[in-house]
Write a structure and sequence with these properties.
This protein is an alpha/beta fold and about 475 residues long. The chain has four domains: about 120 residues, Rossmann fold (3-Layer(aba) Sandwich); about 150 residues, Rossmann fold (3-Layer(aba) Sandwich), CATH 3.40.50; about 80 residues, Orthogonal Bundle (Helicase, Ruva Protein, domain 3); about 70 residues, no CATH class. The protein is about 45% helix and about 10% strand. The longest helix has 19 residues.
């Protein structure tokens, strides 16, 4: 087990038991982090995703079952083991049916816990962070640089789905790294010894896209002087990556659907079909459900492609990765553009972290490359970063400003959902009406602003009168 070096998060409000269990697990070769409450455990998970969680059931404040349910809702691939007294076994059994990895009844045998942890950490979904898991375990994701717990959770899901034959739809904004994730999925799959072939459905004209995908027979059209194998044939046994699938023409969508259903293709101009064995991974920056509603994307194809969805966050949603990525690119670019720069000045890194990055990782790479080409010193100065960004970067908001903005946006969202009905909005927020009105007043909001028609100024008073 010592070869795995995976992190286990122990959660117990009994300091003595927590220390004793930590000693036992560390002596068995585990890396151990501890939390004295479920609330503290959630904070630790937000900072660094462990490989597994072992929690006591009964604790002051949030219980172990509450902790499991929070983890299950936010990161279902993270294994959770519950330590329970004999009288609460039925609760643990029900939790197991909802996704709990396992439970042990106190007093439990140390070997039973070690065996359960070994199984938990051997699952692809345990996905411990890159700095603690073995290099062999992490080889498939070696091109993905991250220190973000959200990305670690996504990669844990990717590790699970990679082992299957399920079609995967990768969603995320342009430049967020969808093709890099697709390549990682292929490397982690049983098909990794076969090729992965990729095509951008938005970059090739419709009349050529069909030939590129399915191939064509000799003489199929003017200029077809020889037979041509499409991606589905050249990628046989491996993975076909369809980038920007949301931009595929409707006529080709129907043909792709038949390929997915029948597992065979008919090259353009051919009379015979050819069996194919490929796994489909597709990606898009578009909202395909909106495209379906607009008649621009086939609903039946959507459900064929979208067996599992992996959603990549934008770069501004994972700002903790910006220093890591910037330095990674700086090192990578040394081979392409020999340069003196070894790092960024603190002010330059602050600008990079504060910037909004509408072009995501692709834009960050471009900015770092510009800085490399122009830099004449060992540290990239802030002036070069600002020049590459072509604007002064906005500063990161203070905690108070961010908290105020979140509270206002949250209240606006609730009042939009409830059409300005304070009682319903307060119930959704878990606050009584008096507290909720104070929040509204603090944020200069009135329920009447969200009501359709009626007196915008007096409608909140009318609600008070009607409920009195």
């Amino acid at each position: 087990m010592s070869a795995l070096h995976r992190t286990v998060l122990l959660v117990d409000d009994d300091a003595g038991l927590l220390q004793l269990l930590s000693i036992r697990l560390r002596s068995a070769g585990f890396s151990v982090e501890t939390a004295s409450s479920a609330e503290q455990a959630l904070a630790r998970i937000a900072v660094s995703r462990p490989g597994a969680v072992v929690t006591d059931l009964r604790m002051e404040g949030m219980s172990g079952m509450d902790l499991f349910e929070r983890i299950q809702s936010e990161d279902p691939a993270l294994p959770v083991i519950l330590l329970t007294a004999h009288g609460t076994i039925p609760d643990a059994v029900r939790a197991t049916q909802r996704g709990l990895f396992g439970y042990l009844t106190k007093p439990f045998d140390d070997n039973a816990l070690l065996e359960l942890l070994q199984k938990a950490l051997a699952t692809p979904g345990s996905g411990d962070s890159a700095d603690t898991a073995s290099s062999e375990d992490q080889a498939w994701r070696s091109e993905i640089q991250t220190a973000s717990p959200a990305m670690e959770a996504l990669l844990a899901d990717a590790g699970l789905v990679a082992a299957s034959e399920a079609s995967v739809l990768i969603q995320g904004p342009s430049g967020a790294g969808k093709e890099v994730l697709a390549q990682a999925l292929h490397r982690a799959s049983p098909r990794h010894k076969k090729p992965m072939v990729a095509i951008n459905c938005a970059a090739i004209p419709e009349q050529l896209l069909e030939s590129e995908l399915f191939g064509h027979a000799k003489g199929a059209f003017t200029g077809a002087t020889s037979a041509h194998k499409g991606l589905f044939q050249t990628g046989s046994g491996g993975t076909v990556f369809l980038d920007e699938i949301g931009d595929m023409p409707l006529a080709l969508q129907a043909k792709l659907l038949r390929v997915l259903q029948d597992r065979e293709i008919r090259p353009v101009g051919a009379s015979q079909t050819i069996p194919v064995d490929v796994r489909i991974v597709s990606a898009t920056h578009r909202n395909l459900e909106n495209a379906i509603a607009a008649g621009e994307f086939r609903e039946d194809l959507y459900y064929r492609l979208n067996v599992v969805t992996l959603t990549l966050p934008s770069l501004r949603q994972r700002r903790e990765d910006i220093p890591l990525l910037a330095r990674h690119f700086l090192t990578q670019l040394q081979a392409k553009h020999p340069h003196r720069a070894k790092d960024f000045t603190p002010e330059a890194m602050e600008r990079l972290v504060a910037y909004d990055w509408p072009g995501n990782i692709r834009q960050l790479l471009n900015v770092v490359e510009q800085c490399c080409v122009l830099c004449t010193t060992a540290l990239v100065p802030v002036t070069l970063v600002e020049r590459a960004l072509q604007q002064k970067s906005p500063s990161i908001r203070t905690y108070a400003e961010a908290k105020e903005a979140f509270e206002r946006d949250y209240l606006v969202q609730l009042l939009k959902i409830t059409n300005g009905q304070v009682t319903q909005a307060a119930r959704l927020a878990g606050r009584n009406r008096t507290e909720f009105y104070r929040l509204l007043q603090r944020n200069h909001l009135t329920p009447g602003m969200f009501k359709e028609g009626g007196d915008k100024e007096g409608s909140d008073r009318e609600e008070d009168d009607s409920e009195a």
